[in-house]
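Lab meeting notes turned into a lecture example. A postdoc, R.K., suggested we walk through two folding results consecutively so the class can see how the record format repeats. The first protein's sequence and structure tokens come next.
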Amino acid sequence: MKPFLKWAGNKYKILDKILPLLPKGDRLIEPFVGAGAVFLNTDYKEYILADSNEDLINLYIVISKHKYDFIDFTKTLFTQENNTPEMYYKLRDEFNNTKDGYLKAALFIYLNRHAYNGLCRYNKQGKFNTPFGKYRKPYFPEKELIGFIEKINKSKTTFLCQDFEKTMMMAQKGDVVYCDPPYVPLSETANFTDYSSGGFTQKDQIRLVSISESISKKGVFVLISNHNTTFTQHYYKNASKIITFDVRRSISCNGKNRSKAPEILAVFG
């Protein structure tokens, strides 16, 4: 099942690598849920889905509460009249200033499908600042939204906006934790970390490994995705299993410029 959001680092295309590594269990915890590809394509009885992006978690909570009525409302934003630079920037300003969580959630989907390459980017003031994408007819992901609703209807799902450490410390023996943090950059010029306005530092990467090692000793299974670099190879050296492969990235708008990047999956536990 495809996620309804366009998302940098979306794991849908490498589920064939991830899913075989995830053991059976009653509960899956995702501290960096993002677009939720792993959640949508697994079959646990219970999920804790968290992220530091407040707008993302607000969206998921609104969908969980309002379901099909929310889809109908959001669909009204996908008109030819709204697919212009003038309307895009007007609606982007409304998104950045509204206190209405329902409207903000709908506008988040509008921005996700109309913004340049679907990037979710914020400035230092925490304002969404991705420019207009100039798509001929942005796709409204109705089928994918319905699939998301059907998924949360048949499982106990909790959405949380909080730091990954707090989420991971909720794990108990027998839980499965999948971590998809903002990736370690392959180079200094490729440091794309602003999924939320706070960014994700090298210290955060090290803290993630430390927590993973700690909770794995308590009977929690942890799987981490990241770029395969000398940094991750060094800090993941205590993993019980490591898999590396190349994956085609889709950040560039020009398909010809979408080169392959080295990926690593590290198992703790």
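The second example is placed directly after the first for contrast:
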Amino acid sequence: MAGLIVVGAGPLIGTSTARRFAADGLPVALVARSEPTVRAAVEAVRGAASVAVHGFVADVTDEPAIRAALDEAVAAIGVPEVVLYNAAHVRYDALGELSAAQLLDTLAVNVVGGVTVAGHLAPAMVASGGGSLLFTGGMPEAKPGAASLSLGKAGLRTVAELLHEQYGPQGLHVATVTVSDVVAPGTAYDPDIIAEEFAALHREPRDSWRREILFRRG
């Protein structure tokens, strides 16, 4: 069975979503920018399901490195059935507060990395029969105290829309779960609950595909 690749396999949404799909029997490849983060995620997923779990270290802003890691992931689990782009640079700043270089660094993670990952994997997914290309969204409304994150999530939403137009007719379900508040275990924004939304998107029949779930509680 084709598997899941999570890019941005942090301890919250990334790991929870990997566990959720592993429970359905999908082998998993996890990518994060630090070895400790990858190791912790791999151990967490292996402890929850009896599927193959692989970890790879790469920074999404290092294009050769992330492309190489994705190639290793495909070699390990095959062309994925599901990809989740969950990488994000979360910071709180006012518009104009960051230098141009700092803003570009933030957008490199929140937007450009998603373009790189999708461009690298989507053609092969389509050629293999389709699947789901999923994104962790946020900031449904722009917030002055989180300017760079607002810009980044708006940009990522546009990336998903463009990918839907390009690859949707070819059988690739491109969709976003837009999370409206801070994710924390044991709250209404528990990552395990959010992981169920990604699983629901992947199960949708083609004639009922949604392009975005707005995850808002309260």
